[in-house]
Amino acid sequence: MNESTNISQPQIYVERTLAIIKPDAVARAVEIEDIIIRAGFSILQRRQVQLTPEQASDFYSEHFGKKIFSSLVEYMSNGPIICLLLARNQAINMWDELIGPSNTFKAQEICPDSIRAVYGQDELQNAVHGSENQICAEREIRFFFPETILEPIITGQSAKDYLAKTVNPTLLKGLTQLSKLKPADPVGWLAEWLQNNNPNKPKINIIKAPLNPT
After folding, report:
1. Which of 152, 197, 148, 150 is nearest to 171 (CA)?
2. Which one of 129, 137, 141, 144 is the catalytic residue?
3. Domain 13-154 fold
4. CA 90 to CA 131: how far, in whole Å?
5. Buried b (16+ CB within 10 A) or exposed e, 18-56
6. Is 63 a catalytic site residue?
7. For residues 123 and 104, is the Cβ–Cβ distance under 8 A?
8. Is the CA virtual torsion 151, 155, 157, 160 positive or negative?
9. Domain map of the chain by residue range?
10. What's the pTM value of the predicted model, to 2 decimals?
11. Which of 7, 37, 39, 141 is the most buried (most CB within 10 A)?
């Protein structure tokens, strides 16, 4: 008799990280973004900005006191940059591998196909920025995309289980009502129904004080 053993699959989380296309590489942004997408990343948000020296100083505050700090602030505030919110499994490590070492010359030597090796110019003008770790990624994402929610995104079986437990029952009720009523605007009707019948909608209990307290 053969017995099958169910081995639970590990949860896979879609990690997010920040990428910056620096002033020296903005003209090649289309090419760089194409490389990013072909590497399996999703670009969730994109924003072109020009930092003031004060904003650049704030963003690179961890480098304060280093010899490169003043040059870095001047360089990053000298022209527009493109900020990208990237997502994929192990996004931080995969982005770090894709861009290569921070020194362009070292990148050209040991990672000749990396973004910095191809598009960078030197140690300072190295085409792109990447978050070093999870803590840095969260801080840097909030710096440029303050409205972003950073909870991990589940995928695979974990996502299916979540949908089956928390989303599908409510959606099924709404679709059942939709098929019975057949409204003229089914999409708008369903959207309003889901908003009104969201089981996770906070409930506020209002306690009325007595009119004539004694």
Report:
1. 197
2. 129
3. Alpha-Beta Plaits (3.30.70)
4. 12
5. bbbbbbbbeeebeebbebbeeeebeeebeeeeebeeebb
6. no
7. yes
8. positive
9. 13-154, 156-196
10. 0.66
11. 141
Tokens representing 105 are 């010359």
End-to-end alpha-carbon separation of the chain, Å? Answer: 77
The CB density around residue 111, as the number of other CB atoms within 10 Å, is 17
Beta-carbon contacts of 47 under 8 Å, excluding residues fewer than 6 positions away, are 82, 83, 144, 145
- Residues shown for the chain: 214
H or E segment at 42? strand 42-49
CATH number of the structural domain 156-196 = 1.20.890
Angle between helices 186-196 and 168-181 (to 10 degrees): 130
Angle at 71 between CA 67 and CA 77, to 5 degrees: 145
Q: pLDDT of the chain along its 214 residues, tens only?
A: 444 344 444 445 679 999 999 999 999 999 999 999 999 999 999 999 999 999 999 999 988 888 889 999 999 999 999 999 999 999 999 999 999 999 999 999 999 999 999 999 998 999 999 999 999 999 999 999 988 766 555 556 665 766 777 778 888 888 998 889 989 988 889 888 887 887 765 444 444 445 454 4
